[in-house]
Write a structure and sequence with these properties.
Blueprint: H1 2-5, E1 15-21, E2 26-34, E3 40-47, H2 52-68, E4 75-81, H3 88-101, E5 108-112, H4 118-128, H5 143-146, H6 148-160, E6 172-176, H7 180-190, E7 195-201, E8 204-207, H8 214-222, E9 234-236, E10 248-251, E11 270-272, H9 281-290, E12 293-295, H10 297-300, H11 303-312, H12 317-342, H13 346-362
Parallel strand pairs: 3-4, 3-5, 6-7, 6-10, 10-11, 11-12
Antiparallel strand pairs: 1-2, 2-4, 7-8, 8-9
Helix pairs in contact: 2-13, 3-4, 6-7, 6-11, 6-12, 7-8, 11-12, 12-13
Length: 367
């Protein structure tokens, strides 16, 4: 019992649900963290090694993200302990069984995350009618295809220029995790004059100080290949991406890729957290002490959930992108101005902004 409640505080979680279906070897967790502003939106992550702590932390990140973005939604998260590369037929059965298991958890709306995509959300929607990030064919805005999160990262980078010694024109960018978020972040940043000099995936890192072709890398990934198969550049291990010399470093994969053990290897002026909880609290504090500007995840990578909320309420892709730009530009600037005025870290400024919005929303609820 204590294990379940050690993460509890004055905000949440509202409920924690464990799911076990022996016939399908389905093991899953759902954390609905806070629903004061409305039903929780949060992705469903499928990975073999997901943990309860990870689910708690990701759910809280979604509460902060949705509150900071001013959305009429709380935060939640679900994790399925399974290999996302399993045969498609089995994956469909697993996702559909998970959807049935959460049919009555009506204050949680499922979105895509690592290991799931718009096809998986279509299966969830078919079962329970409660999912976002759907394929276009059934009225959705496919988040991975349009690059909503990556677009928001580029907007945050534009704002950050006024608060650090980085200019997008000619800025060297390194992307850790060249997947659904990372490739689009690279695409939108290079369109603004930046140069992608390094990218990594689970197989390794490719580095070329003269620049990498984003479209060519994306084509490799679409074929199921690795970035290390790119035609020219130095091939390194996947952890080497942390030490690549660059101006902007974007973690866009798993949690805690930067910790106190490797943070001093990071050679960037600006970190934009494309993934959820990619930098440990200790490492984040160390970056701040070193003068590296690290933009917190729930402020700058909110493009995906903003797009999902617009979709859920019947909006168009065009409206989604307008809303992403407006909200992320406004919130990034508000956070950084608070940081400067109060002489606190970006995380402290962002958390204060989000918690204030959550607690105000909670005042209107009976429980």
């Amino acid at each position: 019992m204590n294990e379940l409640f050690k993460f509890a505080d004055d905000i949440g979680p509202a409920k924690v649900i464990a799911i076990h279906e022996p016939k399908l070897a389905l093991r899953a967790l759902v954390v609905v963290d806070n629903v004061a502003a409305g039903p929780a939106i949060g992705g469903c992550r499928m990975e073999p090694d997901v943990t309860l702590e990870e689910c708690f932390r990701l759910a809280r990140a979604m509460t902060m993200k949705n509150a900071a973005a001013g959305l009429p939604h709380g935060g939640g998260k679900s994790v399925i302990a399974a290999d996302p590369a399993m045969p498609l037929e089995r994956k469909e059965l697993t996702i559909r069984a998970f959807a049935q298991a959460i049919r009555d958890v009506r204050d949680y709306i499922v979105g895509p995350d690592m290991g799931t995509n718009e096809r998986a959300m279509a299966w969830v929607h078919d079962e329970i009618g409660r999912a976002v990030g759907l394929p276009r064919e059934i009225g959705g805005i496919p988040l991975d295809e349009v690059g909503a999160t990556g677009f928001g990262i580029a907007i945050a980078a534009e704002v950050a220029q006024d608060f650090c010694d980085v200019r997008l024109a000619g800025a060297r960018v390194a992307v850790q995790g060249f997947g659904a978020v990372g490739k689009h972040a690279a695409r939108f940043l290079t369109a603004r004059g930046a140069v992608l000099v390094a990218a990594s995936d689970s197989s390794g890192t490719i580095v070329n100080p003269k620049g990498l072709d984003v479209q060519a890398l994306a084509a490799l990934k679409a074929e199921g290949r690795s970035v290390v198969e790119y035609a020219s550049g130095e091939r390194l291990g996947r952890e080497a991406i942390v030490g690549v010399e660059c101006d902007i470093w974007i973690p866009a994969a798993r949690p805690d890729v930067v910790t106190i053990s490797n943070v001093d290897s990071l050679r960037a002026k600006l970190v934009i957290q494309g993934a959820n909880i990619p930098v440990s609290p200790e490492a984040e504090q160390r970056l701040h002490q070193r003068g590296v500007l690290s933009l917190p995840d729930f402020i700058v990578n909110a493009g995906g959930v903003i797009c999902a909320a617009v979709e859920y309420h019947g909006g168009t892709q065009s409206l989604a992108f307008q809303t992403i730009e407006e909200k992320i530009r406004e919130n990034t600037r508000a956070m950084l101005e608070t940081m400067r005025q109060r002489k606190v870290s970006p995380r402290e400024a962002a958390t204060g902004l989000a918690r204030e919005r959550v607690t105000r929303a909670m005042e209107y609820r009976r429980f």
